[in-house]
Description:
Blueprint: H1 2-8, H2 17-29, H3 33-45, H4 50-70, H5 76-98, E1 106-112, H6 120-131, E2 134-138, H7 145-155, E3 159-163, H8 172-182, E4 190-194, H9 200-206, E5 210-211, H10 215-231
Parallel strand pairs: 1-2, 1-3, 3-4, 4-5
Helix pairs in contact: 2-3, 2-4, 3-4, 3-5, 4-5, 5-6, 6-10
Amino acid sequence: MADDDFEDELILSELSDAELVEQMHDDLYDGLRDEIIEGTHILLERGWAADKVLAEALVEGMRIVGIDFRDGILFVPEVLLAANAMKGGMEILRPLLAETGAKPVGKMVIGTVKGDIHDIGKNLVCMMMEGAGFEVIDLGINNAVEDYLGALEEHKPDILGMSALLTTTMPYMKVVIDALVEKGMREDYIVLVGGAPLNEEFGKAVGADAYCRDAATAARTGASLLAERRAA
Ligand code: B1M
């Protein structure tokens, strides 16, 4: 019996790239952190770039989880396990993504807004910003306006980033930006916002400098707005 079990065990390293990526989507869905870590290592060893592993194996896997969460097939505990597995892979990729663009170009304070505990997308933004040469101060999740203001005061960044994943929490970005305006601090910072339910129009409506649809866009936009500001 034990031999049969052993024979049935899936050896990730023996799968083709396409099979492995598909298996990683399944493993992410099942919240198997160790397998996601192993799969991530295997793809990197096969010469995959870190951003390709991230996009095709991890982010795509989480997109599938999101669909079944929305449709009531998966529930919070399962999605938490999937998120934990995804973070296992991200931890391996973080230093690789961060080393791609060595030059320090500026500083960013970023956090998920009050009432919202989603942090995977925000963590990706941190990685990409670090990769673009920014020093990043990550305030984590569930940040009230005072948290942002305190961090801006303490760290004096060039950029403030806010993330929201819920339609109920995204309006809080306007609370933070209004507080900056009220204190006469708005023009001191480039404000970038992002998160799945946001769009360009929302970014404009709340008074942000830019809405960023993904982490790579955040890094690009942050760098170009900062360069423009310095040139001016
Ligand atoms: Co939540 N959840 N969740 N959840 N969850 C969503 C967001 C949801 C869309 C699922 C669904 O119904 N399909 C839905 C929101 C619906 C809505 O508001 N209209 C939802 C819900 C309802 C909830 C709860 C209310 C469920 C409940 O309790 N009944 C609850 C709320 C808790 C709270 O925050 N108060 C809840 C809880 C959770 C978990 C804790 C289980 C877990 C979070 C774990 C964690 O983050 N540590 C979770 C997860 C994982 C999701 C989904 C499945 C995946 C989110 C994710 O990580 N995506 C999500 C479904 C979905 O989004 N499709 C869902 C991967 C990530 C890479 O993408 O975060 O979009 P994303 O980030 C992108 C861009 O948006 C952008 O760059 C990133 C990458 O390129 N970006 C930025 C993000 N932030 C940025 C900031 C920037 C710039 C770009 O600043 C400059």
